[in-house]
Amino acid sequence: MVTSTQLGVIQAEGVDAGSFLQGQLTHDVLLLPVGQARLAGYCSAKGRLMASFWVLKLSPEKFVLVCHASLLASILKRLSMFVMRAKVKLSDATASYRLTGLLGDGLLNAFPAAANQAPWHVLALDEPGAHLIQLYPSKTLNGWLPRAVLITENTERLPVVLAQANLELLSLEAWQLSEVLSGISMVQDLISEAFVPQMLNYESVDGVSFKKGCYPGQEVVARSQFRGTLKRRAYVVSSQAPMMVGQEVFSSNDETQACGMVASAAAFSPDASHSAASYWGIVSMQTSAVDQSLHIGSGQGPQMHVHALPYALLEDI
To answer: Which of 85, 149, 153, 252 could staple 293 via S-S, CB 3.0–4.6 A?
Structure first.
């Protein structure tokens, strides 16, 4: 297990919390059952992802939004600008929640019921104020590695079930690698407003609803989906050289014009022996460049290799 310092929590509470978030996020939070979670994006008017969240619905009037810590202050300020007369209170609740990432055998030893659960399913726990959100698994060389995040309202101590399981601590590097190998990037400050949701495959991992009402950038997101071929997608890549979030990627077809950008990056760690390459990442790039020779930083930079996604794209389902 690992307690993440890279994630923050925004809490939305009030009688209008659901309707307010419904008008801001890419997913349908009103239809989301109480006690369940989804991925959701927060877009600019141009349809570009400013942030992304794991949204947990605690009640019709209370939501927890987990986002990258680098964006929390700016996104909380922006969301608050649109509250107006809505009866909803938005707050930085990071200090009120403990976020614990769980992987593989450690996850299944502590929570056997998490085996074979669908992504975004929230496991019902006996301990009050504790919620286990099943994340997309990592596709490793040795098979599938289940992943989940435990959100607990009591930050004073570890939940009883974790204390009894006596789990070993994971390095933050191992958790970051598992996230990359799941093929899903959380938006952070270095890539805020760089991509529409489909460029990170959000519509293929239940992060976008095309049946809900309006939200900022909704027309652009819908047009990207239904009025033409999607020309950029996210791919899992590896390299023997480091990658940095926000770094440009070039192809052999055009060494002067970038064809993509690194959205997530992770280094090999000793306790992540399922990885053969030294560095892994998620790159959002032109689909036409996937079969070409790809390079980091410049047309002559270190080479990277594309791997199969761990989930099916919506257009292929």
So the answer is: 252
